[in-house]
Design brief:
This protein is mainly alpha-helical. It contains 15 helices and three strands. A three-stranded mixed β-sheet has the order 1-2-3.
Length: about 325
């Protein structure tokens, strides 16, 4: 039995690097992956009854569990939004879903989700069209269940950009895992290039993003701008100012010509930090200067009011 959160020493970067590099093989060799979706949902009537009790309820007898009746809830459980379950769900030889003591094979879950969403998940064209027009977004399980295609398993490797965008709604504690958790699913050519650098938890988050951008720019020949929202949201970069800086660094980084040495990236990062400090100093100087100008105008305005007041008094005295 393999449970990555327990079987990997999370405090050791070296062990994490080594095990994440082998993660796809670990899951690919697994006879079965067990997906824990949590406990069965408690009916509202029971919740109200339990809220009125003074002591905690230890045992609750409910009606027989029906997967179909609970598909809206089950297809939106937190399991489906985690980056590290993507390889687990897609690469294992077989997958079974568990909810409390109830078990369902992934293909049965696939068919049930297909029926409830109204999308043909076995058709790339149908799923792609519905995904792009937003239909079916109420089911968080759709991207994973649709990706584990029964007819092409396990040959469904995708370019890095497609994987990033398709799973941009997933979550992880460490932003670097947005890349590292997908390494076992990229095409063979992409992986050969990416594994010169990844996984390496000693890299900063920005350097991981710069390497990914370098790959997309030089290998996939993508034109990336700060307006490339889907891509940058997948990389966890929201600020357009930060996007511009990362793109500039990626354009200066010789991704394809590098042998995996990241020292130049560290130099670029240090340079960016100095630029950030200089920008902050310039911004502060601008704010100070603007404050001085405002005070100067305020003093002039006060002097003008005082002058007008004196003139008014003189005129009033003469009129008397």
């Amino acid at each position: 039995m393999w449970v990555d959160a327990i079987c990997i020493d999370q405090s050791s970067d070296l062990e994490r690097n080594a095990q994440v590099r082998l993660m796809d093989a670990t899951y690919r060799d697994a006879v079965c992956a067990s997906v824990w979706l949590g406990l069965v949902p408690i009916p509202e009537t029971y919740k109200q009854m339990m809220a009125s009790l003074r002591e905690p309820t230890k045992l609750l007898e409910c009606d027989p569990f029906d997967w179909s009746d609970q598909i809206d809830d089950l297809a939106n459980r937190s399991y489906w939004s985690r980056y590290w379950v993507i390889q687990e769900f897609l690469l294992a030889q077989d997958v079974y879903m568990f909810c409390s003591g109830n078990v369902m094979h992934w293909l049965d879950f696939h068919d049930m989700l297909e029926h409830h969403s109204g999308i043909n998940l076995t058709s790339n064209e149908s799923y792609g069209a519905n995904k792009n027009n937003g239909f079916g977004q109420s089911f968080a399980a759709l991207p994973l269940v649709a990706s584990r295609h029964p007819d092409r398993f396990p040959e469904f490797y995708q370019p890095l950009c497609d994987l990033l965008v398709n799973h941009r709604g997933s979550q992880c504690k460490d932003p670097r895992d947005r890349l590292f958790a997908l390494l076992g699913l990229v095409t063979e050519d992409d992986r050969e290039l990416l594994q010169r650098f990844f996984p390496d938890y000693r890299l900063s988050v920005d350097n991981v993003v710069v390497i990914a951008l370098g790959h997309l720019i030089e290998v996939d020949r993508l034109t990336i701008t700060p307006e490339s929202n889907d891509l940058f949201l997948a990389l966890g970069v929201e600020s357009k100012r930060r996007r511009s800086r990362l793109i500039a660094r990626a354009n200066r980084f010789d991704y394809t010509g590098s042998d995996g040495d990241t020292s130049y990236l560290q130099d670029l990062e240090a340079e960016a930090e100095w630029e950030s400090i200089e920008d902050a100093d310039a911004h502060e100087a601008f704010q100070i200067g603007r404050g001085k100008v405002f005070r100067s105008y305020a003093l002039r305005f006060i002097a003008l009011i005082e002058f007008l007041a004196i003139v008014s008094v003189i005129v009033w005295i003469k009129a008397k």
